[in-house]
Design brief:
Low-confidence stretches: 579-585, 708-714
CATH architecture of the largest domain: Alpha-Beta Complex
Helix content: 25-40%
Largest sheet: 6 strands, parallel
Number of strands: 27
Number of helices: 27
Shape: elongated
Radius of gyration: 32 Å
Mean pLDDT: 88
Strand content: 15-25%
Structural class: alpha/beta
CATH class of the largest domain: Alpha Beta
Number of domains: 5
Strand order of the largest sheet: 19-24-23-20-22-21
Distance between the termini: 35 Å
Oligomer: single chain
C-alpha cells in the first residue's frame, strides 16, 4: 500500500480575481503560483519569457571565439556525452554551426572505452584530428586536468555544461554554466541542451540571424524532458514550443523516431517523449556507439533518418531483452533469500551484467520493492555498478559514508555510480546498511504518492479536464496533478488488455465516472462491485469514435478509511486475546506510576508535546474508540497530521501523531520515548498489561476506567454463528476449499444467510470447527485460509467441548 501525502491547500488564500477555477487555483497556489500575472504567464508560455543569453557568464567570450572560428575557417569539434541530453546538445550545436558554414565534427565518447565526460583516453583519440577549437556540451565542468592537456596541445576549448561546479574551474577560453557561483543567470535548472540552445541564441543575435534558434526547439525539448530537469521557467517554454513543433513539423530524425515508436498520428506529450522517444535514443549509448543518435537527429533527409531510427529501435529492443534477463536474475536472488529486516539497501552483483542497462534495472527493482538498490557487475575482481534511491535517502551521501571501501564513486541524491574491489563487498553491504538503519524510518520504506487536492465527484468535468490540459507540459517540477476522490462506490470493475489493465465505473452523488488503471489489473482481485473506496487519480479526456469523455486515470485505490479501519480491526483483534494464559498469569503493571487523565481529550497537553517535536501515540482496542479518537484528533485546533496503523507502528519523519489499533507487544516495545495515551475500552486486561509493561511509565497516560470490563461492540458470538459458517463451507462439493479473501466470504455469508458477522467471528468459527475436528484449517495469513472438509456431517459434537468457544462465550457475551 502506498502512503498518500496530500498537499495542504486548506489555508491557502486564493486571488478572487484568478483567471482559473478554484480547483486549479488551489493546485497552482500549492505550487507557488498565486499572483494572477504569474498564473497567466504559466498558462501561456512565450518566447518573450526567455532570458538574455548574455546573462550567462562567459557567454560573450564563447561567442567571440566561435565568430573568430568562422572568420578563420577553423575546424571545430563538438564534444558531447552518450545520453539523450548529450546527443541532443551535440546535434543542436552541430546543425547550427554547419548552417554557419563551419567545418564541424561531433565526438561522443564510448561508455565502455572512454567513460563519462572529457577523459584523457578521449584526449588521446582527438588530439591528432587537426582541430583548432573544441566545444563541450553537457560535460567538461569537472575536467580540470583534461582541459589543461588540451591547452598544452595548442587547441582552444570552450566548456558548456549544466552540472554542479567543483572548487576549481577548467582553464578554458570560456566556461558557460549557470551553476557557476559567479554567474547571475536567473534560471539555474537548464539541461545541457538548454545551455547549447542559449549559445545558439547568443550567436544568432550577434550574427543577426533572426529566429534561427527556433528551428531546433524540438530537439531542445527532447533533451530537456529526457534529462528530467525542472519544467519551470525557461524549460517550460522549451518543452511547450518543442512539443508544438514535434506535433506539427519535427526534424526528419524525430519524425522517423515517432514512426518506429508506433506514435505516428498520436498526440506527442512529454510522457510520449520520456517513455517512447528518449529510450530509443538512449539505447544507442547504452549498448554501442551513441554517435548514431546524433546522426539520426542531424539527418538531411527522411531515408537516412529512417535507417538510423530503425537501427536504434532494434537496439532498444535488444536493450529491453538484456535488461529483462538481468532483472529476472536480480529478482530471483532477492526472492530466494534476501533479508529486508537486516538489509534495507538491496545490493546484488552478477557476472556479465551489461553496464549500459544495470542502472535501468536498479530503477525497476526500486519500483518493485521500494528500497534503495545497487547493482554491480564483476569484472576481474572489480565490481562496477549503479545505484538508485528512494525519496528521503541520499544515495550519494550513503556512498560517501563508505568511501574508504570504494575505488571511486559519483552521482547525486537519487542516482549514483561506483567501483569497488570485490574483496570489500561484504563490508560494503554491512556499512551502507548500517548507514541506512540510521537514516531510514519504517515509513520511508512505503512509496509516497504526492496528491494535490481532495475533490468531489461534482468537480470532475470536461471543463476541469480541459483546464488541466492547459497546465501541460508535465514533468519534473510540474507533475501531472493528482486528486483524491473519497467514499465513491465501485459500480463495475473488470480486467482489460489480457488482464494487464483495469477498467471501472464509479458512482458518487448520483454521478457515474469512468476510469482506467494501467498495469493494475491485479486490483480486480482485491475489490468488488459495491465496495466503497478512495481513489488517487489524474483526470484525462478519452477520445474514441469521434467522441470525448472525461475519465480518471487511477494511480492507487483502497477501501475507504472507515472500512479499512473496521476490516483491519477485526483482522487483528484475535491477536489481542489469544495469549497463552499460563505464560501471562504474572503479568502486572504498576498503574500508580502512570498519569491518569480525567475528561475526554487532552488537547492542550498534546499541543504542548507536539510543539516540542515529541511523538504522541494513542493506543486503542475498541472499534468505537478508534472512531472517536480519530474524530477528536481531527478537531484539534492545531490540525496536526496523524496516521492510523493497525497492529504495527509505521513511523514517518514528518508526523509526530499516531493512532495504533490493536498494538502488538512487539509494537509497544518500539514506543519508548513516545508519549503514549491508552484510550477507550480494552477487551483483555492481561493483554493490556502486557502492552503497558513495555512502555516507559513516565510517558504513559491512562484514561479513567480504561481497565474496566469491556465489550467488543458488534462482536457477539453464539451457536448460530458457528452453524452458519459450517453450512457455508458445505455449500460447495469440493473437499478442499481455498478461501483467498475471507472479507469476501464474510460478505457472502451476511448476504446469503441474513447474518451480521465480521472477519474476527468468522475466523473464530473456523478455529472452533477445527478444534472439534469437523474440518482441518490452515491459516496462511489474516485473509487466506485453506480448509479440508471431513465427511462427518452426521457426527454429534458439543460446542462446549471447544475451549475456544467457551473462552469466547465468556469474553464476548
Amino acid at each position: 500500500m502506498k502512503n498518500w501525502i496530500i498537499s495542504d491547500t486548506a489555508n491557502i488564500e486564493l486571488n478572487t480575481d484568478s483567471c482559473v477555477s478554484e480547483v486549479v487555483a488551489k493546485l497552482l497556489a500549492a505550487r507557488g503560483l498565486k499572483n494572477k500575472e504569474d498564473i497567466k504567464r504559466f498558462m501561456n508560455p512565450s518566447y518573450e519569457d526567455l532570458h538574455d543569453p548574455f546573462l550567462l557568464i562567459d557567454m560573450d567570450k564563447a561567442v567571440d571565439r566561435i565568430v573568430m572560428a568562422i572568420a578563420k575557417e577553423e575546424k571545430v569539434l563538438i564534444y558531447g556525452d552518450y545520453d539523450v541530453d548529450g546527443t541532443t546538445s551535440s546535434s543542436i550545436l552541430y546543425c547550427f554551426l554547419k548552417k554557419l558554414g563551419i567545418n564541424a565534427e561531433v565526438f561522443i565518447p564510448s561508455r565502455f572505452e572512454e567513460g563519462y565526460g572529457l577523459s584523457m583516453a578521449a584526449v588521446d583519440k582527438i588530439k591528432d584530428g587537426g582541430y583548432n577549437l573544441i566545444i563541450t556540451v553537457d560535460c567538461g565542468i569537472a575536467s580540470v586536468d583534461e582541459v589543461e592537456a588540451i591547452n598544452n596541445l595548442g587547441i582552444d576549448i570552450i566548456i558548456t555544461d549544466h552540472h554542479q561546479c567543483q572548487e576549481r574551474l577548467p582553464r578554458a577560453i570560456a566556461v558557460v554554466n549557470p551553476h557557476r557561483e559567479d554567474c547571475k543567470y536567473p534560471f539555474k535548472e537548464l539541461c545541457g541542451a538548454g545551455v547549447a540552445y542559449k549559445l545558439v541564441t547568443a550567436l544568432s543575435e550577434i550574427l543577426k540571424i533572426k529566429g534561427a534558434e527556433k528551428e531546433y526547439i524540438d530537439i531542445v525539448a527532447l533533451g530537456t524532458v529526457a534529462d528530467i530537469v525542472n519544467l519551470s521557467d525557461e524549460n517550460r517554454v522549451f518543452v511547450y514550443y518543442g512539443l508544438k513543433k514535434i506535433n506539427s513539423s519535427p526534424c526528419a530524425g524525430i519524425s522517423s523516431l515517432i514512426e518506429v515508436a508506433g506514435l505516428k498520428g498520436k498526440d506527442i506529450t512529454s510522457y510520449s517523449v520520456a517513455f517512447g522517444l528518449a529510450p530509443r535514443l538512449n539505447a544507442a549509448g547504452r549498448l554501442g556507439d551513441a554517435t548514431r543518435a546524433v546522426r539520426l537527429l542531424t539527418a538531411d533527409g527522411e531515408a537516412e533518418a529512417k535507417e538510423f531510427a530503425m537501427e536504434l529501435n532494434s537496439e532498444n529492443m535488444l536493450r529491453q531483452q538484456t535488461e529483462g534477463e538481468i532483472y529476472k536474475e536480480v529478482i530471483e536472488y532477492i526472492e530466494k533469500d534476501y533479508n529486508f529486516e537486516k538489509n534495507r539497501v538491496i545490493v546484488a552483483s552478477g557476472v556479465n551484467w551489461h553496464h549500459g542497462v544495470i542502472g535501468i534495472v536498479a530503477s525497476k527493482v526500486v519500483e518493485k520493492y521500494y528500497r534503495p538498490c545497487i547493482l554491480l557487475c564483476n569484472e576481474n575482481g572489480e565490481l562496477r555498478g549503479s545505484g538508485r534511491s528512494i525519496e528521503g535517502f541520499n544515495i550519494f551521501n550513503a556512498l560517501t559514508s563508505c568511501n574508504s571501501l570504494l575505488i571511486k564513486y559519483g552521482g547525486h541524491e537519487m542516482a549514483a555510480g561506483l567501483t569497488i574491489n570485490s574483496d570489500n563487498l561484504d563490508n560494503f553491504v554491512s556499512q551502507i546498511n548500517s548507514y541506512a538503519d540510521n537514516e531510514l524510518k519504517s515509513g520511508d520504506l512505503i512509496e509516497r504518492l504526492h496528491v494535490d487536492e481532495v475533490i468531489s465527484a461534482a468537480d470532475v468535468s470536461m471543463e476541469l479536464a480541459l483546464e488541466l490540459k492547459r497546465l501541460e507540459p508535465f514533468g519534473q517540477g510540474n507533475p501531472s496533478p493528482l486528486f483524491i476522490l473519497r467514499d465513491i462506490k465501485i459500480n463495475s470493475i473488470r480486467k482489460i488488455g489480457d488482464g494487464k489493465h483495469l477498467k471501472a465505473v464509479f458512482s458518487s452523488e448520483g454521478k457515474l465516472i469512468e476510469a482506467v488503471a494501467f498495469n493494475k489489473g491485479d486490483l480486480c482481485d482485491e475489490f468488488n462491485p459495491e465496495d466503497i473506496v478512495d481513489v488517487v487519480c489524474s483526470i484525462d479526456i478519452n477520445s474514441y469514435n469521434n467522441t470525448e469523455k472525461v475519465q480518471l486515470i487511477v494511480r492507487d485505490m483502497r477501501l475507504c478509511q472507515s472500512e479499512l479501519i473496521v476490516r483491519g480491526f477485526y483482522n487483528t483483534i484475535d491477536k489481542t486475546i489469544m495469549y497463552d494464559r499460563h505464560e501471562l498469569t504474572d503479568v502486572k503493571v504498576e498503574l500508580n506510576k502512570c498519569e491518569q487523565i480525567s475528561g475526554d481529550f487532552p488537547e492542550e497537553m498534546l499541543n504542548q508535546f507536539l510543539s516540542n517535536n515529541e511523538k504522541c501515540v494513542f493506543l486503542v482496542n475498541d472499534i468505537d474508540s478508534v472512531k472517536k479518537a480519530e474524530q477528536l484528533l481531527e478537531t484539534m485546533k492545531s490540525k496536526a497530521a496523524f496516521r492510523i496503523d493497525i497492529g504495527d507502528f509505521v513511523e514517518e519523519r514528518d508526523k509526530n501523531l499516531y493512532i495504533i489499533v490493536n498494538p502488538s507487544v512487539k509494537t509497544a516495545k518500539l514506543l519508548n520515548g513516545s508519549n503514549v495515551f491508552v484510550y477507550g475500552r480494552w477487551l483483555d486486561q492481561i493483554y493490556l498489561c502486557a502492552v503497558l509493561n513495555c512502555i516507559d511509565k513516565g510517558k504513559l497516560f491512562l484514561y479513567n476506567n480504561v481497565l474496566g470490563v469491556s465489550v467488543l461492540n458488534g462482536t457477539g458470538f453464539d451457536r448460530d454463528d458457528v452453524m452458519t459458517v459450517y453450512k457455508y463451507l458445505w455449500k460447495t462439493p469440493e473437499k478442499t476449499i481455498l478461501l483467498n479473501d475471507i472479507n469476501k466470504n464474510v460478505a457472502e455469508i451476511n448476504l446469503s444467510y441474513n447474518r451480521l458477522i465480521n472477519v474476527f467471528i468468522f475466523r473464530k468459527c473456523i478455529e472452533v470447527l477445527n478444534e472439534l475436528r469437523l474440518i482441518n484449517a490452515e491459516f496462511t495469513d489474516n485473509i487466506r485460509i485453506k480448509i479440508e472438509k471431513f465427511d462427518n456431517r452426521g457426527k454429534k459434537v458439543q460446542l462446549e467441548d471447544s475451549i475456544i468457544y467457551r473462552k469466547l462465550q465468556g469474553m464476548l457475551n
